[in-house]
Every structure is written in structure tokens, then in C-alpha cells.
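Curious: can you check?
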Amino acid sequence: MYTKSIIIFGIAIPGGGLLIALLVLVSSVNNLEKKSQTKAEAYQSYQMTVSGRRLAQEKLAARSGKMDYWSQSMRQGFVQVMNERLTTSMEKFDPIQLRLVEIGRGGQAGLAKGTEADASSIMLTFEGGFGPMQSLMAELESRIPQLVLDSINISVGKPTGRGDEKGLTFIVIYSAWSKE
């Protein structure tokens, strides 16, 4: 007579409750594992981002000297910068190898002519060899950020004083952009 009640209330209901509790526990553990895995992936992604940012900052810090140099060159007046760099660069060459003959205004030509940006033009005339001139131009163009070659005219010049050799005459016109 009480066997049915004992089976229902003593075994079935507690067993069902225990089964429900076990299912909730398994579901909670699975949910926690998924959250833990998602958070671990997010943390790894964050660590990669931090290390990438740190690497980028180190690269920028290494370049800051160059960037400061270029910014300073852009802020200074073009004539002052050109005069300093040209004087420094010309000291490397013997006057027989390369000498500056003339400096003048180049007029509005080349790239400066087709733009509305503020630009000035300078014409430089040199006498000497091709190699030294090539080195000088490369140095000037790398040390003066706003300098752009408009034109170059190369012709055989007068004797260089080295026997029967004739030197080359270079007429170089540069445009220089001003920082706005």
C-alpha cells in the first residue's frame, strides 16, 4: 500500500531532482568552459596587439631623429637650408672635381608651374665630373625634403686644368615646396 508512495516520493522525485541538478551542472560547466576559452582567445589577441603596438612604437622611436630632422628642414627657410646643405656637401669635393659656378633663380618651371602650392625655384650651375655631380645631387635630394628636380642640362664645358680633358657643365633647376 505504501510502496507506490515510497517509490514516487522516495526514489522517482529525488532521482528526477538529482537528474535535473546533474544536467544543470553539466550545462553550467560547458558554458564556463566556452566562456573561459573565449576569454583566453581574447587575451591572446590582446597580447598580440600590445606586442605589435610596442614594436611599432620602437620603430617610430628609432625614426624620430630622422623625422625631427625633416620637420626642422621643412620649417626653416628654403634659402637658408639650401645654403647650409650645399656648402656642407661641396666641402667634400676638390674644386677640380666639382665646383659651383653660379646660383640664381630658376623661374616658375616644371612641376611648380602646374600647381597652386607655394614653391620657389633655384638654378645651380656646376663644372666638374659626372660622378661627383651625381653624388652631390643624391645628397642634396636626400637631405632637403622639399627639393624636387625640375630639369638638368649637361654640356661639355671648358678645359678643367687636368691636361687636355674638358669638364662637364651642369645646369640644374630645382623646385622647393614650402610647408603650408
Remarks:
- The chain is about 55% helix and 25% strand.
- The longest strand covers residues 147-159.
